[in-house]
Amino acid sequence: MTSRSTPSRLPAAAQATFDTAALDDGQLVTLAHGETRALVAPHVGGSIAAFYDTAGHAPPFHWLRPATRAALDARDPLGMASFPLMPYCNRIRDGRFRFEGEMIDLPSGTGALRHALHGHAWRRPWTVEARTDSTLTLHFLHEPHAFTSSHGPDSHAGTGWPFRYEARQHLTLDASGLTVRLWARNLAARPMPFGLGHHPYYPRPSGTRIAARVRAMWEIDAEVLPVSLNAHPAVDALQAGLLVDDFDLDNNFSGWRHEAQIEWPHEGRRLALRASAPLDFFVLFSPPGLPYFCAEPVSNTTDWLNLRHAGTAQRIDVGGTVLAPGETLETQLAWLPERL
After folding, report:
1. Which of 42, 266, 275, 293 gives a 20 to 30 Å CA spacing to 168?
2. Domain positions in the chain
3. What is the chain's pLDDT, residue by residue, as a tens digit (340 residues)?
4. Which H helix or E strand runs over 37?
């Protein structure tokens, strides 16, 4: 149904067999409530390493795909359970965009990776600011030009994100589930474009379904960049409850109603994903043959900064925002487990 390039999403660590023993790691912060646990890896991009239920399960039931030993050793966020997306979500075409008359040139790779991906906050460590047994606050500070590209010797070393900002994640584990509150503030002396979200991976046993109400889907080109916003069979299938194995997707959906239901009928489990504005967009990544899929709450469509400059935003809502100096942005998402 779509043509896409997937190497950037499928590192070796992410393809490895799930290894729950890997989670016995002293660098992980454990949140606990009753029989539920959430493990967080501040040093791996402020990622969530696992979210699971130990009640009546040996091994535990994992609501998100748990991190592998290889991913933890490599500090690879793509092998985590979920990681934060800032200051934009998904790809920026050729790692470049124009903002207020200035061409911003982002560090990026080559070939299929020449499109800057998921911002930079997921590639850097976050600082533990506060914690209790069931809550954790992480802090991130971006200083322009303080970091170089992490894509390797063949990378295009752009000047990077020129706007100074800070961000926080506040995670709470309670009887309802795991909530993540995202917060960011523009510390620059000029306006800053900004987008945010989270990138969760879910286990995908046979029969896994996902349901969500969306309005339309962005068709993509061979490099997973948006071409046009249209009706699509996946839109109707999502409303009815899409069988994940029936669709090969890496697409952004607009008009998301801020809720999705993921169901594992053979396990008798269901997980509600709920979010608040401006997480008005939804990405579904369901490549065939892999033991996981992604359903991502995000505040902007792929390449929104270039679509905005091209005037697409005048006709179609592509999301994202512009923060004035000192202005803040806050949102939250939650994973709420249920038994069928």
Report:
1. 293
2. 7-11+80-339
3. 443 433 334 343 333 456 767 788 889 999 999 999 999 999 999 999 999 998 866 788 999 999 999 999 999 999 999 999 999 999 998 888 999 989 998 877 666 567 888 999 999 999 999 999 999 999 999 999 765 444 443 344 456 899 999 999 999 999 999 999 999 999 999 999 999 999 999 999 999 999 999 999 999 988 888 989 999 999 999 999 999 999 999 999 999 999 999 999 999 999 999 999 999 999 999 999 999 999 999 999 999 999 987 766 567 889 999 999 999 999 999 999 998 8
4. strand 36-41
What is the model's pTM? Answer: 0.90
Within a 10 A sphere around the Cβ of 243, how many other Cβ atoms?
14
E-only strand ranges, 76-120:
82-85, 91-92, 96-99, 102-105, 116-117
The letter for the amino acid at 245 is D
CA 309/CA 122 separation, integer angstroms: 26
Tokens for 333, please give them.
């998402």
CATH of domain 7-11+80-339: 2.70.98.10
Tell me how far apart the alpha carbons of residues 226 and 229 are, in angstroms, rounded to a whole number: 8
Phi, psi of 162 (to 5 degrees): -85, 5
Task: Specify the amino acid at residue 28.
Answer: L
